[in-house]
Amino acid sequence: MLLQGKKNKDKIIELAKEGNVIREPEDITKEPYVFEFLGVPENKPILEKDLERKLIRHIEDFLLELGKGFMFLGSQQRVTINNTHYFVDMVFYNKILKSYVLIELKTKKLQIADGGQMNTYLNYYKTEVNDENDNPPIGIIICAEKDEIAAEYILGGLSNKVFASRYTYILPKEEQLIHQIEEIIINED
Description:
By secondary structure, the chain is of the alpha/beta class. It has a single domain, classed as Trna Endonuclease, Chain: A, domain 1 (3-Layer(aba) Sandwich). The chain is built from six helices and six strands. The chain has helices spanning 6-18, 48-57, 59-66, 112-129, 148-155, 174-188; strands spanning 33-34, 70-81, 84-94, 99-109, 138-145, 161-168. It has a six-stranded mixed beta sheet, sandwiched between helices. The model is unreliable at 1-6 (pLDDT under 50).
């Protein structure tokens, strides 16, 4: 059980006192993101553009789901490379980390091309958009499915901070939440 043992109790008490502390780009990602506020049935297929529209329509709820320090800058932000236009689904700025946070929405399983796409956007932002006071941009690919092993190969070795997280339309069951929390605590040891 999660609360068994003094070590786990100490971590829970520390989290309760400090709250969610953001020090590193990893601290702003979640697994999974819960889009329950959209009212979409769990197994209903949805297009990426429709998911994006719904998130923008519910931007206040989405900002709460993202966490501390996020400011929404826009959707479909144009990136022009050698006279070819590409578009980042959603762009945020995290004032705590002093970083642009680029989000790509994928309504399918994480693919190899998704990592390259996000890495390209991050390189562009690092070179063309960042000010001297900004930290390197962060990329988050929010996808319907993610295979952990494939994600390691797709995102591993990139010089940019790119993360992939799943999304769901409903809160996980209590047993799943307890299991996820236990895994996090075990992996932090």
